[in-house]
């Protein structure tokens, strides 16, 4: 008899945790991902803001799973799932791939609600490519400002707007002011990088809505002390090449970053089962698709009830727990045992605000940490959960370097990442300062 | 009176060395480069082969020159030089930029002789983007081979051909066998990465022709011991998607890398002065363009006589010396002193061959080193000349990690770098192994 085959779609936290839990068991595991690397998403904003290199927060999936000899990793994009024939199709592969059990862990993308045209002007942050794109925009804004002579245009180049006051938005906003004021300042001759404006727009009444209210307030104060303008109840109504509209209000900026809202992976739809509003898959308590205990969904794509109306949050620890739980339920079925309901263990939530400050809500808000203590805790947790010894060491050293020298080491602009940005940075008409110096005061 | 303005085109070794030599003097310096970073090209092949991260061998040019307060750095592409009006034009800038003195240090690109169509199938190695492209091809070859069932196609995927037996070609070829045999092997389930073929093609009668003959022979033996097939007098007559032709001989390979031949930057032509065969600018002994002591050319773009017929080689130390010399000659002119002829101090040449082995020719071949001693010397020199403390530390740690654990940490494939490669890796028809297992031996 052939071995039972478990196919896992996605090598993020959920998929990897399922593969590890199945490692060494008597099933054959096939993990398929669109990329060759696992990405430690909680630190992605640090790649976007020149603090860390892409390779420091990624690890090849097949390297992570090298000791799980019953796991085969393949690079490919899954396009369809057919639950009736128990098979998936991969782009470019002529034959379907059969499964006995399926774990779908394909996550989410950022969503622009009903405004996909905003993506061009306000890139989001989900993949390494996204982070490189944001980093490039951010660095090019300074390069352009250094050429720019018109003070209004220059101010627009040095205005950074972040849309969305969740952890990603807060962490992005918190890191920019000090970086501009300290790390970049000695490198420019014509502009003063300390004159940047950083604006954080949140549509709701407070930032970090998943944290206790007192911590949201503390985070707002911490951000404001750094010089970030926090605007609450600010519903974005337009984004274009020239800036952001909030109703009648207009902010001129060429650097808008999107950290508001996610949409589920389209593979949720392929399962042909009810989805909740944002496209996440409504599941039975054991994480299987209703009526089909061969198919499990884990991670950000899963909609699992938790506290009454509130679903399990889309965070890395939840994905880890779900992946392991789905694996357990598969192995239980193979032993003829009933599956178990998933119970989310909420360890807590963390967010940093610049250098030295963070907030933490542990044990469902029972323990609240702020300030330097929370920041050290944040550092520790993130180093601990990074995949691979090399990454942990490397990130620690980078952070030490950044911290001690007020520097940012990863300031690389490369050409082909984003065709729309690869033209010469200065394209608007203006009089060259050098030329004027010659013609006017001239020698 | 306005200050004298020196414009430097290019932030490689030559341009940077000129800017540093002019730092603190009474001239105003403007350095223009197409990228925002200085690249330590001697280690670029290590980025291409997953040993180092792009950010470890680059440094922002404006950061490198932050202490030279009279130097302004601008990101831009120079399109024309007009020596009569003493001005250059930058793409997208409406006004010309005037210079009193000009230092052209725009280097070379790889040249495919009269076969530009080969570039698509055999990428060269000059920029960070080039290195990422080669790294991606290299990693995708293994990913594709893991899907591939046809043994002939699989063998073609695991055949790596390097065209050109200069230092870059030799270093690329030397690093591949051990990486495939050790670092990658535990990560794959279907292919044996130790079965790779690495072929080095050299058109001339020996590899490393600029080294003494005994060292070329030693390097050939070292490479062959590692398992590299070295083919001399092998003139490539065709490269396409399926492999390389050497006359009637044909090597099937999907991974061909180009390390043969450079062509000068097109800015050489813009100077409207005689060029030598490969497009390098023929200069007066003081490094100025004949008849125009306002314009200097340094680095790989400069054709300067050295030992009779042999010009100064296109290597980093020569570019460094030329940059500093051109700066000195500009300052001498400002003091009313005559310019001095450039004298190249040949410190020596180095090349590594895999792990533990290198060759070095010092003092014009008077001292020859081989084996581990030369390798340690190579390590030391390369760390010493890297720009920036952070890069030196980071590269040292990466190397220690790679060496101790036989690992390669930077194995990142990202999507948009190379559109032609971003489609699904497996595109040719074949029967899925998983499917066959099901249909044939099936459960």
List the helices and strands and how they pair.
Two copies of one chain form a homodimer.
Chain A: E1 5-9, H1 13-22, E2 28-33, E3 37-39, H2 44-48, E4 58-60, H3 61-64, E5 71-75, E6 78-82, E7 87-90, E8 97-98, E9 101-104, E10 108-110, H4 128-147, H5 151-157, E11 159-163, H6 167-183, E12 197-201, H7 213-226, E13 228-231, E14 238-240, E15 243-246, E16 249-252, E17 255-258, E18 262-264, H8 267-270, E19 281-282, E20 288-289, E21 292-297, E22 302-303, E23 305-307, E24 310-311, H9 316-334, E25 348-353, E26 357-362, E27 367-370, H10 371-385, H11 389-405, H12 433-439
Parallel strand pairs in A: 1-2, 1-9, 2-5, 9-21, 11-12, 11-17, 12-13, 19-22
Antiparallel strand pairs in A: 3-4, 6-7, 7-8, 10-18, 14-15, 15-16, 20-21, 23-24, 25-26, 26-27
Strand order of the largest sheet of chain A: 5-2-1-9-21-20
Instruction: State the distance separating the first and last CA atoms of chain A.
Output: 90 Å
Largest sheet of chain A: 6 strands, mixed
Report the average pLDDT across residues of chain A.
89
Overall radius of gyration of chain A = 24 Å
What is the general shape of chain A? Answer: globular
Helix content of chain A: 25-40%
Relative strand content of chain A: 15-25%
Regions of chain A with pLDDT < 50 over 5+ consecutive residues?
416-443
Number of helices of chain A: 12
User: Structural class of the helices, strands and pairings of chain A?
Assistant: alpha/beta
Oligomer: homodimer
Number of E-type strands of chain A = 27
Greatest contact between two chains: A-B, 85 and 85 residues
């Amino acid at each position: 008899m052939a071995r039972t085959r478990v196919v896992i779609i996605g090598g993020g936290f959920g998929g990897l945790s399922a593969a590890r839990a199945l490692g060494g068991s008597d099933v054959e595991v096939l993990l398929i991902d669109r990329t060759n690397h696992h990405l430690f998403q909680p630190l992605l904003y640090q790649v976007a803001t020149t603090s860390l290199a892409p390779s420091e927060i990624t690890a090849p999936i097949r390297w992570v799973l090298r000791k799980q000899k019953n796991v085969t990793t393949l690079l490919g994009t899954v396009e369809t799932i057919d639950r009736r024939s128990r098979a998936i199709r991969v782009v470019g592969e002529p034959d379907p791939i059969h499964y006995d059990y399926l774990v779908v862990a394909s996550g989410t993308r950022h969503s622009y609600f009903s405004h996909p045209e905003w993506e061009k002007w306000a890139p989001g942050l989900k993949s390494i490519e996204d982070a490189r794109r944001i980093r490039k925009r951010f660095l090019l804004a300074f390069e352009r400002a250094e050429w720019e002579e018109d003070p209004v245009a220059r101010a627009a180049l040095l205005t950074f707007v972040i849309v969305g006051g969740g952890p990603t938005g807060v962490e992005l906003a918190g890191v920019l002011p000090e970086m501009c004021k300290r790390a970049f300042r000695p490198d420019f001759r014509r502009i003063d990088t300390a004159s940047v404006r950083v604006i954080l727009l949140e549509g709701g009444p407070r930032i970090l809505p998943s944290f206790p209210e007192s911590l949201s307030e503390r985070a707002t104060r911490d951000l404001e002390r750094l010089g970030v303008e926090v605007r609450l109840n600010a519903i974005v109504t337009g984004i274009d090449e020239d800036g952001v509209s909030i109703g009648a209000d207009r902010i001129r900026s060429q650097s808008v970053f999107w950290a508001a809202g996610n949409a589920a992976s389209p593979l949720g739809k392929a399962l042909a089962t009810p989805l909740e509003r944002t496209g996440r898959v409504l599941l039975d308590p054991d994480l299987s698709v209703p009526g089909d205990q061969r198919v499990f969904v884990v991670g950000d794509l899963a909609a699992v009830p938790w506290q009454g109306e509130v679903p399990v949050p889309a965070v890395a620890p939840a994905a880890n727990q779900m992946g392991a739980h789905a694996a357990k339920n598969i192995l239980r079925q193979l032993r003829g045992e009933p599956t178990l309901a998933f119970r989310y263990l909420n360890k807590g939530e963390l967010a940093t605000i610049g250098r030295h400050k963070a907030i933490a809500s542990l044990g469902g808000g029972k323990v609240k940490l702020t300030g330097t203590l929370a920041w050290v805790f944040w550092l520790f947790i993130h180093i601990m959960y990074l995949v691979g010894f090399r990454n942990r060491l490397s990130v620690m050293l980078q952070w030490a370097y950044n911290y001690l020298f007020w520097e940012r080491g990863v300031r690389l602009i490369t050409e082909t990442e984003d065709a729309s940005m690869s033209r010469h940075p200065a394209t608007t008409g203006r009089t060259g300062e050098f030329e004027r110096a010659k013609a006017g005061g001239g020698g």
